[in-house]
Amino acid sequence: MKEMLEQLKQQLSEMLPEIDSPQKLEEAKVRFLGKKGSLTALKRGMGALSPEERPKAGQMINTVSQWMEERLSECEQRIKSRMREEALRSETIDVTEPRDAISMGGEHPLTLVLRDLVDCFTGMGFEVVEGPEIELDHYNFELLNIPKNHPARDAQDTFYVDDNIVLRTHTSPMQARTMLTRKPPIRIICPGRVFRADEVDATHSPVFHQMEGLVIDEDVTMADLRGTLNEFARRLYGSDVTTRFRPSFFPFTEPSAEVDLTCMACHGKGCPICKGTGWIEVLGSGMVNPKVLDMCGIDSKKYKGFAFGIGLERIAMLRYGIRDMRLFYEGDQKYFAQFR
Ligand code: DAH
């Protein structure tokens, strides 16, 4: 019996190095420890032994059986850890491997200009408001002192939705909406899309962008308007850029002014961009017409205000040397990539 056990141990020992897969492991378990395995056969054979010999033989078989189980479980650990390593190796992803270049777009020049304007004016204490693009005639015209049949309506080729509803022709209706819903002091800017029935060419588009500004308080004067716009010019274009006010007319401001900035291309010396004048027209402005204040529920005896409207396309064209307005709306990523 002892000899046979030693032989079985010997057999398993020799096999161990070759047990390198779960199947071979299972085969070995069945062969040595299974129901029809060698050890079980030996146990059965114990019946032939004398009662005195039996306990000793049983103990020997158990010792060997334990020994075999330990060896096979070592085998199992070895196989498992090897399989884990293989899996790790074969499933490894090389995160440093170079991939195809992703083509990057750029930010739209109008977005860049808008962000600078908003930064500039919020830095001076203005709050950003937004309003509807489809607007009532009442806000777009009437409350701004542009009644029906007023010649100023002809200057803005309006898209009418019906008799009372238009696509807003400027951001100025937000002046009226703000005055009607807020109490002074008011200091707002309103950027947004505006619409006019213009033919598309290098300097016209039926859709373009403006930014409105409105300030209402007790002692607001034209000097505050000038100071605010000078500060805007300096912050955006540098300390040598200033404003020039030219008398103008808008029904909703009195007095009104067209405002020019020192030409940023030639710093006022005169160049093709400013047509030799040294100045570039960028916005309309003025003191809010007292009639407009009263129509919008603000006491014109107590309060004064100033307003301005800036064309964003114009500023972006000047800043980036864009000659044709159509480029803004064609969505050509290759073109915009240069503004990254
Ligand atoms: N709304 C005018 C336009 O689109 C621009 C404008 C002029 C706005 C004078 C103003 C202003 O606020 O005071 O032509």
CATH superfamily of the largest domain: Bira Bifunctional Protein, Domain 2
Distance between the termini: 87 Å
Count of domain modules: 2
- The averaged pLDDT comes out at 91
The topology string of helices and strands comes to: HHHHHEEHHEHEEHEEEHEHH
Strand content: 15-25%
The bound ligands are: 3,4-dihydroxyphenylalanine
Explain how this protein is built.
This protein is α+β, with helices and mostly antiparallel strands and 340 residues long. The protein folds into two domains: 2-91; 109-339, Bira Bifunctional Protein, Domain 2 (BirA Bifunctional Protein, domain 2, 2-Layer Sandwich). It is built from twelve helices and nine strands. Strands 1-4-5-9-8-7-6 form a seven-stranded mixed β-sheet, sandwiched between helices. The protein has a two-stranded antiparallel ribbon with strand order 2-3. It is rod-shaped. The mean pLDDT is 91. 3,4-dihydroxyphenylalanine binds at residues 170, 172, 212, 250, 253, 284-286, 307-309.
